[in-house]
Amino acid sequence: MWQSSGTRALPNCLPAASCSLCGRASSGKGGSWATSEDIFNLEEGWSLDVLGDDAHAEASFAMDEDEEEGLGMAARSILASMPAHKLHALEADQDAADEANAALKANERRSAAAERKTHNRLRIISGTAAGKRIRSSRGEQTRPMMEKVRGAVFDMLLSHAGGTGQFPANARWLDLFAGTGSVGIEALSRGCGQAHFIELDRWVVDSVLAPNLESCGVVAKATVHTMKAEDFLRRSAELVRFAGGAFDYISVCPPYLLVSYPELFQLLETSPLVHKDTVIVVEYPKRSAHEIPDQVKNLARVRDRQYGRTFVAIFAAEE
Questions:
Q1: What b/e sequence results for 39-76 when a residue is b if at least 16 CB atoms lie within 10 Å of its CB, and e otherwise?
Q2: Which residues form a coiled coil (predicted)?
């Protein structure tokens, strides 16, 4: 149990523009649960269990057989009445248009790839994957936690867990706004049995998170949900045993400018994913300090630390 420190760090600086704290539905390799949202599977790629909006739109504009046959007859009639040289000209124009479209798409892909690159400056600090370099996105796609901050946070958590340097093998971790996955991977490296990673950006999942899970050897213990963290928490309140039930640890690292802390805490307050002994780690900027509550369910804010421009609050059951 946690002893409340009774003090808080006094914020005295401005935060960066976005958060810095910062698997797959495995089959027989570890305890994970396939859910109905869009899930990325490292072996099979993407799968969707619901009919998307585009499919609905296509269905709503579908022609019946008579309409299709009539349109086809009209087109064939027009083509049959055209001189051969005009048909050849039309075909040439179509070929040129296809080539132009293909070139445009290729340029768009190259531009996107040039804008979204990765580097390997981060590393896992301790455990089975200690020293492993992991990918992160250049630019503003992800803003992972500095290693010294991550190390300090995990030292506090492991001290609470018994001081053995390892989490219990049956511990479950939920990494909201996962980004690089550095927090959840650190937890798996230090003994956690399972981790669920919530990340909305598919490019980040494909190019950053999934390769990091592979290189650190934790794929069998990881499940990635490609969706908004807020939607994940909402769904947990609707489905029994969603994502396998409650988590022992939850890390919350939202992009500062794109999130409502009051909304996040309200969702955590009502989520069955939080049980009476869950430990919640929340990163926040100075300007949001007044939005951080003193309690979530029965969990008190037992630690509140400042690391440069990073602020971290820990919620846990008190003695």
A1: bbbbeeeeeeeeeeeeeeeeeeeeeeeeeeeeeeeeee
A2: 87-117
State phi, psi for 92 to the nearest 5 degrees: -65, -40
Residue 99 lies in domain? 66-115
Q: Are both 245 and 188 inside the same structural domain?
A: yes
pLDDT one-digit tens code per residue, 209-232: 999 999 999 999 999 999 999 999
Check if the beta carbon of residue 225 is closer than 8 Å to that of residue 204: no
170-212: pLDDT as tens digits? 999 999 999 999 999 999 999 999 999 999 999 999 999 999 9
Residue 24 lies in a domain: no
Residues whose CB is less than 8 angstroms from the CB of residue 311 and which lie 6 or more positions away in sequence, other chains included: 9, 11, 15, 283, 284, 285, 286, 289, 304, 305
251 touches 22 (CB < 8 A): yes
0.90 surpassed by pTM: no
The DSSP secondary structure of 218-252, one letter per residue, reads: -GGGEEEE-S-HHHHHHHHTTSTTGGGS-EEEEEE
Residue 33 lies in a domain: no
